[in-house]
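To make the argument concrete, we let one protein speak, a sequence paired with a row of structure tokens, as a model reads it:
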Amino acid sequence: PLQALHVVGQCVAKGTRIRRRRKNKKGEWEEVPVEDIRPDDEILSLNDQTGKWEWNKVEKTMDMGIQAVFRLETESGKWIETTGNHPYLVKIQNSLQKTALADGSPDTSGLTRFANTNEPDLRIDINIPQNSDNVNNQKGVDPTGIEPVRPEFLDPVPEPGGPTQGLLSQNTDLFSIKWVKVSQLKLGQYIATQDGWEKIVNIDNAGRKQTYDLQISNTHNFLANNIVAHNTYINSGLNIGAAFTGGAATISNGLAVSGNVGIGTTTANSTLSVAGSAHIGGIRQGIAAPANGLFVDGNVGIGATTSNNLLDVWGNARITGTLGVDSTGTLGAGLIGYLGVTAPTSGLAVSGNVGIGTTSPLQALHVVGQCVAKGTRIRRRRKNKKGEWEEVPYINLKQKEVNG
């Protein structure tokens, strides 16, 4: 991945021409670069129920970032630059055994021909799942700079509502029609265009280019550079796989997920399921990652809304294993202290032996060190009484006097 969220969708390259109906201009249209298409624009697409051309609205526009693209060219010179997983409508010669489908591509072998015939209506499966490689609410493309209609774009076009001319009319026992990814197309196969089926004569790697995609209402396909192309179709929740590109879009209000989220697992049984280690914070340097734990840069608060220490626990805490506090044992470092003005009235409750100066206490309180018994008298100089002194029990001495 090249960004925090990297998505690979079904995309076409920047500059791909999309046929758009001109607003308030009945029957007039223009060809506009894909990057200048906006939501609610009406573009030319193929009706999956009737086989006729019609105008359908753009539901979403998606900036899909820079991706590897291929240049697909037909015998008449039509061409399109597109990502390898973008499906196109293909006529495939049948054999005695049904041809296997491209991964995730539905069978549309029931297709006969486009409308205006006595054959059954054309039906194109509009649900082409590609691991739902899509994301809602992506940043729309820049609506400015729409290219004006150029004379070379004003050639005759199939009228919306009319049939596509010159497309398949042979016996369907001899062929089937399928959506096939560019990466699985072969030279010599026929793809659907505005002028009918055209043979593929060239497929070349076109390098890495800025890409865009559209989601179209009803038909889920669009005419791009006069070639019928399927759109990215959101048919389920977000599934982020090996490579998902969200482009340069920034989600201002975060990512909202309804349901469980799994990281490193395909079965999330909790609101957040993480299989493996987790690292929260800056880049880990100089230390090994936890084999199967949680690594946090910064403070952690449990039961707290603010945390000013590496670990703040507001409330009761229970430790069933060993608790080690400052294993270096720096003298006077304040290994255990109370925050606030007074210690808790209940004191420190310990179930088991307590050792001071020893790691293996034999009694409830086992002290190893330099000690004196209770009642031992210590000679102390009397304040403001030059030369006078007194003897007091050790226990009555103040800390400053003991240290001095």
Remarks:
- The longest strand covers residues 53-74.
- The longest helix spans residues 399-403.
- The helical segments are 399-403.
